[in-house]
Amino acid sequence: MKVIVNIQLKNGVLDPQGKAVHHALASLKFNEVNEVRIGKQIILDIDESDKAKAQERVTIMCDELLANTVIEDYTIEFPAC
Amino acid sequence: MLVAVAVFPGTNCEIDTKYAFEKLGQEVVLVFHKEEKLPEGTDLVVLPGGFSYGDYLRSAAIAKFSPIMKAVIEFANNGGKVLGICNGFQMLVEARLLPGAMKRNENVHFISQFHHLKVINNDNTFLNKCSIGELLNIPIAHGEGSYYIDDAGLKELYANKQVLLTYCDEKGNLKNPNGSVDSIAGICNKEKNVFGLMPHPERAIEKILGSDDGVKMLEGFIN
């Protein structure tokens, strides 16, 4: 089963990379951009057919390693495939 | 004093750290990350600078699960003294031995330069040879050194005198190179046996190389 983990800095935590990219977009005249936040995506392929169980296991993976919950939030997705 | 310096794949400051403590007359052992025990009689563990595990995922995110880190965490929880420098500081926050977290530098650049620091608290082992308000000139070299902690955590740091050092200019005025909360460069835990800082005191132990201000910092651990 494929599982996608999206990780981004929490709201209120300044994202310096996003800010730099925002400036770059503005310099290219993409003035409609209000904010840029950069995150990372981790794609897992796991041996599990039960979605609920997978959700539970991946949540533990996120809390223990994949995300630093002091500064980052994460979402877990199950892509249709 | 026996100093154990942990070495992870990608660590690159272990020899400097060893050299610095040996210059101060101490016995130093390098301990590989696969070891499960610290050497018998270890008085101080140093987690040195570098790029453990290539800084993959996040700085120090993977190092905290090394076999040796289990021993280091146990050592710290039993009151043993631990000093984390740069990547070592990142390991200590990732392992939750110190509060807060480390983010990319605000300007998104790797910064490598001498930087002045101000001593904020000295009633601890690490900075007991320095005076409050004293300025120290110590190299910094990091890309992810922007210290973050929430407001409640910050209040607690101040209340318990856990803020050790802040970044400043040569006159002691505020100068924040990386966007750290309150310009914080180094902290300790509540129990004052775990210390972390982004600057490199082990690179400032000889005047001919720019500064020897690191000596009185490292000497704090020596009775």
Strand and helix map with partners:
The complex is a heterodimer of chains A (81) and B (223).
Chain A: E1 2-9, H1 16-27, E2 39-45, H2 51-66, E3 72-77
Antiparallel strand pairs in A: 1-2, 1-3
Chain B: E1 2-7, H1 14-23, E2 27-32, E3 44-47, H2 67-77, E4 81-85, H3 87-94, E5 101-103, E6 111-119, E7 135-142, E8 146-148, H4 151-159, E9 163-168, E10 184-188, E11 194-197, H5 214-218
The total strand number of chain A stands at 3
Could you state the order of secondary-structure elements of chain A as H and E? EHEHE
CATH architecture heading of chain A: 2-Layer Sandwich
General form of chain B: globular
C-alpha Rg of chain A (nearest Å): 16 Å
What would you say this structure looks like, in words?
- The complex is a heterodimer of chains A (81) and B (223).
- Chain A has 81 residues and is an alpha+beta fold.
- Chain A has two helices and three strands; from the N terminus they run βαβαβ.
- Chain A has a three-stranded antiparallel β-sheet, with helices on one face.
- Chain A is elongated, with a radius of gyration of 16 Å.
- Chain A starts with a strand and ends with a strand.
- Chain B has one domain: Rossmann fold.
- Chain B has helices at residues 14-23, 67-77, 87-94, 151-159, 214-218; strands at 2-7, 27-32, 44-47, 81-85, 101-103, 111-119, 135-142, 146-148, 163-168, 184-188, 194-197.
- In chain B, strands 2-1-3-4-11-10-9-6-7 form a nine-stranded mixed β-sheet, sandwiched between helices. In chain B, strands 5-8 form a two-stranded antiparallel ribbon.
Give keywords:
heterodimer, A: 81 residues, alpha+beta, Mth169, Chain: A, 3 strands, B: 223 residues, alpha/beta, Rossmann fold, 9-stranded mixed β-sheet, 5 helices, 19% helix
Task: Give a short overview.
The complex is a heterodimer of chains A (81) and B (223). Chain A starts with a strand and ends with a strand. With 81 residues, chain A is of the alpha+beta class.
